[in-house]
Amino acid sequence: MIGPDGVIAPWLDAVAPRTLLVVGPTLPLIADYAASHPVVVETSPSTDDALTGLQKRYDAVLMSEIIASEDAVLLAGIARNQLAPDVLTLVRPTIPATALFALGYVRYAHTEDRDGPLLSFRYTLATYNHTRSWNNPKFWANPERWNKHWW
Known about the structure:
Blueprint: H1 4-15, E1 19-23, H2 28-36, E2 40-44, H3 48-52, E3 60-67, H4 73-83, E4 86-91, H5 97-101, E5 106-113, E6 116-124, H6 125-128
Parallel strand pairs: 1-2, 1-3, 3-4
Antiparallel strand pairs: 4-6, 5-6
């Protein structure tokens, strides 16, 4: 099983953010990434008051503080809604995955640290609402009348 760095590093390479907010403790991996890539890294404590007080948008947010309680899921929602279009968070398995699925997160990878197993979840605005084939005028009421009559 890979460690948290093995999940975070590929995510950083895929997203390639120019501005990154790290919510929680700063990881050595982030310093290494910032040294070799043109990225501005900012940190924030993992409290909802600190996150809602931020007035800036970022390219990506890394929730390095592991979500271990259902109250902390609120932080993932704040990061998604107010801070960035791409968010990665680490969660203890005691948190129901449906709490993050409800926020539009998708399961990313399994990992573990010295305290036990972790799940990672990712939110990407670009792929959040995929185009559905049925969501167009072709399949609405009375499709046989389209382009024949004006209502």
